[in-house]
Amino acid sequence: MCRGWSVECLVTVVITDGESPMFQVPSTSMVGQQAAIAGVEWLEVRTSGETPDDIHALEAAMRGLDIDGFVSGALRSDYQKNRLERMAERLGVKSWTPLWHQSGDMHLKQMIEHGFEIMITAVSAEGLTEGWLGHVLTVESYEKLAGLALKHRFHVEGEGGEYETLVLKGPHMPERLDVKGRPTWDGVRGTYDVV
Asked: N or C, which end of the chain has less CB nearby within 10 Å?
């Protein structure tokens, strides 16, 4: 949007059976509301998350769109980027990954500084406790998160699945996403279950 491109829709892969090595699972049900606030159509793609069915479901859904390309948010995962690029080739469209190999530290810090409200919706790394579930990152709490990432050796931006997030507000969203939920914690990992 900032580049002046026409955004046709937000596409979300919703995993119906547990976990996925490819797509985020927690809080993806909220993307429809994010899209509505941003004034963009939403396309929900439901799949079990099994490989290769996950990418086939996404490809089938995107085949019906009149688009030149798509944007994904991968920072480091060759697995994710390569699968999406191969899908783009089969669809005859461009795959653009603008965050690819950006500094995770800089990326997350700049998002917070530019007005993004980012809630942590799942944690699964040593050092991240139940207290982070439902927490909206601030400049101060980001510094604490960065310290934990250094101490416990996880990616500060969560790119390795150490935690998952949900954007509640950003420059592309004129209103804030209203989210209520409750934490589920098993003593090692947990989720903030949106209700």
From this structure: C
